Each structure stands twice: as structure tokens, then as C-alpha cells.
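Task: complex structure prediction.
Instruction: return C-alpha cells for all chains below.
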Amino acid sequence: MTLLSLENLTVRRGLCPVVENVTLTVAEGEFVGLIGPNGAGKTSLMRAALGLLPHEGQSSLAQLSPGLRARAAAFLPQGREIAWPLSVEALVALGRGAHLAAPPDADRQAVDRAIDRMGLQTYRARSATALSGGEQARVLIARALAQDTPLLLADEPVAGLDPEAQLKTMEVFATLAAEGRAVVASIHDLGLAARSCTRLVLMQAGRVVADGAPRAVLSDENLAQVFGVRGFHAETPDGPVFQPMGILR
Amino acid sequence: MKVLLPLGVVGALLFAASLLVGPAGLGLSESLKALLTGQGGAVVLVMQEIRLPRALLGLMTGAALGLSGAAMQGYLRNPLAEPGLIGVSATAALGAVLSLQTGLAGLFALALPLSALAGATVAVLLILVLAGPRGGALSLILAGVALSALAAALTSLVLNLSPNPFAAMEIVYWMMGSLADRSMTHVWLAAPFMAVGLVMLLSLGRSLDALTLGEDAAASMGVNLTRLRLAVIFGTALVVGASVSVAGSIGFVGLVVPHVLRPFVGARPSRLLPAAGLGGAAVVLAADIAVRLIAPDQDLKLGVLTALIGAPFFLHLIWRLRGEHA
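Output:
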């Protein structure tokens, strides 16, 4: 089943398009890695898809009412803002605000599951603002998980996390996809993206320039043309390894 | 609940105390009997026409300031925000000052509060033009600051051009904020605006909770940001405009009360709203009792006392924030 469908989506900043004619569908079971250099339009694409940015073209999510959309897709913004010193548990429970009619039991279970998944059991009662940046990032991911939606859009979810938390987060996302949901995440670590995602979408200057299986998308030509780097590839038992090795231009 | 109950009890006790304090020196049973049964001649007059409106207005303005302060802090995600930030207090005060200056205030009893409400209405219209139904927190703050500055300048101009020192004196005294010598007419004038505004602000809890994580996250959780912004602006303008129109400017309650109570509600904006409403009512009632007890003969102004207590507290707050971010 298709969980997100974008048709000729265009976002303009002033006259200049930052996302141009993107057509994309995401089906259940997919873990889509959105890759591309800074300023390629990854964040704008996600925000416009959710209806948070004015856009041209169609997005299946942006057409929904705010309440329905909140039950169709969760969003993890790039800026990790926590304004008040809420307890971790209360913060994660904010994700349940999208399900006003849900019974308290369902709310509690969803919060518990999200906290378990992100390994935050020991942090439950702590004040979220007193945690480190990486810990806060995990709490915010748990909040998005508690929203319990078929689709999760995450903007740089693993930036600033330690290696274990990065792997763990990618594993959680992959599990969500395997369970029949879908995840779209912008990721700068190409090797991590290649190992965890079922599909990569490569963006450059607002356009999708490659879309498909990770190994096909991360070709030498694409890397050179889009990122301007030369990469080192290797196959390991844990999956492909990719390391940028040199600047080409 | 753990916070609301004690705050409610304290508020109720202070409300009762406010009814019993005054220069008339009435006995407890005598005054209660007069208030409830309407029997007892002059005592009835004192209780129903002087003390009851004063206590009711203390309750109402305090709740208005506390609740709108909590809503404003929640919306702007800033513990230093306060209800006057969007310029409504300053423009409402300007409206009142103009009615004093022109002599309109002397024509009929409600001329002054109605002028203040007109000032508040102008402020809301200007805020909507300047900061719009969309846009971020910053545009709202900047528009509010600019509007407050303009209203303050115009108020100064009125004082500056005041024909005689007594007129200027009257204006200055009014601006200090007080609940003395108000009638039930004031209560009935302010009540509908406050009721609508309080309900609007109280309904924002879930949206303000979600806004803890920023505007994008809140919008993705189903919050209609435009509706939230309009509700914050209109709700605050209604309660603050009505409060200034009947009591003048009472500072620091809307800033300090939400801040003090925040740790007791787990910092959740939705739980802070009713708590700050009750807390604000308790603080204003207490301060209004205090002005009557401290200087019974000198008409110490309520706004002066809240500022005297509030400002040092504000300094303490900044000191603590400084420590946190060092």
C-alpha cells in the first residue's frame, strides 16, 4: 500500500525553486534514505510533503486535515527543540496528542513501547532538558514513535548520535519498515544509509537524480557528480561499507 | 490535581479574607450575614457594593493575568514572556488615559473602562496587521514591543500636555493599578470578556504542550498553528484588556506566577494554565488585602505593591537563568 505519494512537488524560496518537480511514492515496508549534499532540498521536500511549506504539485499527506495527517505520518524535525523541562516520559507521551480518542491503555502501551525501543527505560523520570544532546535526540525519536503512525519522516535523525545510538536508531527504523510501516529519513552517513535502508533517493539542487537500491544509487558516477567525492567501497559480512576518500573538484 | 486543590483552597480563603478586610471594621458574623441575607442596613451596602466587587475583581484580574501569562509563555516558549508583551496592556492604558484627559471618564461610570477596551481592540487589530495570523514568535514579540513603545510614548505625551497638575496626577494614580472604589458595574462589564478569554486560553493546553517541541513538530502532531496563534492573541487581549480596563496596570503577576508554578506541574503547559489562573487570583487577592492592611489610610496602589514584590523576584529569576546557562 502506498503511504506517501508526491506528484510534481515544487517548493520555491522567492523565485528560486528549492525542490523541483519531485514525483515519489513510498510504500509500506520501505525504509527510504534521503541523501544528497547540504542544500539539496531534503528538508524542504519533507516539510512540503507534510504540508508545512507552501508548495505546488500534490502531496497525499498535505491534502489531509491536520488531525488525520497526524495519524498518517509522524515527523521528526531537524532542529531538536525542547522548550520546557518535561520528564522524558511526559515528553514521549506528547506523541499521543495525535490520538485524542485512544483509550489510556493504548496510550500507555505506545509510550512504553517507544521508550523501550529507544532504550530509554532508565531515563523515564529524568528531565529531558537536563540530558545530553544525543540523549535528547533519542527521546525525540521515541516521541515520534509514540505517535504510532504508518509513516515516519525523520530529518537527520542520527546526526550527533554516538555510534551505538546511530546503529540502534537505524535498526529501530528498519524494524518499523519490516513490520509493515515505512520510514523516510535524511541521512548524511552514506555507508550507514546503504546498510540499513531498503531504498535510497539521491537529491541534488532540488531534483531527484537517482532512486533505487542502495548499491545502484551509490555508484561512482553519482558520487562524483553529486557529492564531488571519490569513495572507497567494500563488501563486508555486515553489508556495504562506504567511505568518502577524496575531493574531486 | 495535586497543585490545583491547594491553590483553589488558598484562593477561596483569600477571597473570603478580602471580603472581611476594610476600614469599616465589621465583625465576621455581621458581615457574612449582611452579604448572604442582605439584612443589616449600612453593612449590606459596604459588603455588597464595596467589598464584594473588590474581591471579585481581584479574583478575576488575578486569574486573567496568571492564565494569560502562562499561555503567552507557552506560546512563545519563553519563561520571560508576559501578558503585556503583545502591547494590549499599554494600549488599553492609553485608552483609559485619553478618557481621563479628555474628561470623557467623568461623563458616565463606564466611560473609562470602555475607552480602555477600545484601546485594547485597536492593539489587537494592529497586532494582526503587523504580525499576521501566520508567522513566528519573533514577529509577534517585535510587533508587541513596538506597539507598547508607541502607546507609552503617547501616554507620556498626554501627561506632558496635561492642562493642570491634578489631571496629570489623576492619570498617574490610575496607571498604578488598583481595585479600590470599584462597583459591581465594573464586574459586570469585565466578566463577559474575561469569561470568553479564559475559556479560549484554557482550551489551548494540548496545542501548547505539542508546541514544546517547536512549530514544525506541533504542526505534524495535528496542531493548527494559525488557529493557535489567533486564539492566543484574542484570548490574551480579551482578558488583559478587560483586566486593565477595570484595574489599571498590575505588573509582574503574569510573569512571575506561571514561572513559580511551572516546576509543580511537571513543566507541562496544559497543566500550568489552570494552575497559573488560580495562582494569579491568589496573588492579586493577597496583594489587595496587603495594600489595605499595610497602609489603610494612604491608598497604597495594588500595582505598586505587585511590582515591588515582583521586580526583585524577576531579578532572582534572571540570576538563576544566568547560572543555568553559564
